[in-house]
Amino acid sequence: MAPPAMRWFAVAALILCLLLPPSFAIYCDEDDCYDLLGVSQSANASEIKKAYYKLSLKYHPDKNPDPESRKLFPKIANAYEILKDEATREQYDYAIAHPEEVFYNTARYYHAYYGHKTDARAVILGLLLVLSAFQYLNQWTRYTQAVDMVKKTPAYKNKLRALELERSGGTMNKKKGHKQIDKSGKMDEDFSKELELQINGAEKPSMWGLLAVRVLLLPYTLGKLLLWSGCWFWRYKVKRAPYAWEDACYLTRRCLRATLDAWRNIGEVSKPNP
Questions:
Q1: How many domains does the chain have?
Q2: 8 A C-beta contact, residue 197 and residue 147
Q3: Fewer CB within 10 Å: N-end or C-end of the chain?
Q4: 108-143: pLDDT as tens digits
Q5: DSSP characters for the chain?
Q6: Residue in 26, 33, 29 with CA at minimum distance from that of residue 52
Q7: Tens digit of each residue's pLDDT (9 = 90 or more) over 225-247
Q8: Is the CB of residue 194 less than 8 Å from the CB of residue 163?
Q9: Does 73 lie in the same domain as 61?
Q10: Percent of the chain at pLDDT above 70?
């Protein structure tokens, strides 16, 4: 069975495909480029050119003052620009023959017309945003799954009952209290915050941990690191000052190679004295 994140992504992709117009519509909107010029799909370059010149004499705004011609002629000119070039005509014919390949046909179109104008910074920023979105979705899915698993354990339910008994002064009816806990989502949420569940392998996602945010804050992070390193070198290497409490804890945790969560679980007696 696929994870929830993958199922949601598949549903979103399906909805996006249904909402997107056919890929060949990006060339001549809802019209057919060949129909606009009045030629068949097997017409050669000479026939396409003759058809365009004939339509230009009829619908060009300088030749025809009709307001409808002002709307139709840009479409004719656009169709001619697409079909007169062999490369773009080949792409258009492929899009007609394979309308199901929406993303591939769209990418080819924009690469042909706008590829040389694409800003690399915009591409990198878009890639970071997409990766950050997947990162946040993955972290949130893991976190919710871990929370659901913890809430199903007997230890969690016993803590909820004990906390409710403590709040009510020990006079709560057990059956009634159990029903209230099961039915009240807000109460369960408040209890979860008070219990401060430590879930290994799954942390609640934060915007500050996303890849895009970290890249944007990289200059600030590097500057802060350089400032901290300079202060450390001046205080403990040059001035030979005694280690502060926080710095002694940092060195001890580094020597023990302990994670931050494991270090927090160590008793105060085991930590170094200031």
A1: 2
A2: yes
A3: N
A4: 777 776 654 555 676 787 888 888 899 889 888 888
A5: ---HHHHHHHHHHHHHHHHSPPTTHHHHTTS-HHHHHT--TT--HHHHHHHHHHHHHHH-TTT---HHHHHHHHHHHHHHHHHHSHHHHHHHHHHHH-TT-HHHHHHHHHHHHHGGG--HHHHHHHHHHHHHHHHHHHHHHHHHHHHHHHHTSHHHHHHHHHHHHHHHTT---HHHHHHHHHH-HHHHHHHHHHHT---TT-----GGGSHHHHHHTHHHHHHHHHHHHHHHIIIIIIS-PPPPHHHHHHHHHHHHT--HHHHHTS-TTTSPP-
A6: 33
A7: 999 999 989 998 898 888 888 88
A8: yes
A9: yes
A10: 67
Q: What's the first-to-final CA gap in the chain, in angstroms?
A: 53
**84 lies in the same domain as 143:** no
Q: Are residues 123 and 201 in the same domain?
A: yes
Q: What is the pTM of this model?
A: 0.43
Q: Is residue 267 part of a domain?
A: no
Mean pLDDT of 209-232: 90
Could you tell me if 150 and 156 are in contact, meaning their C-beta atoms sit under 8 angstroms apart? yes
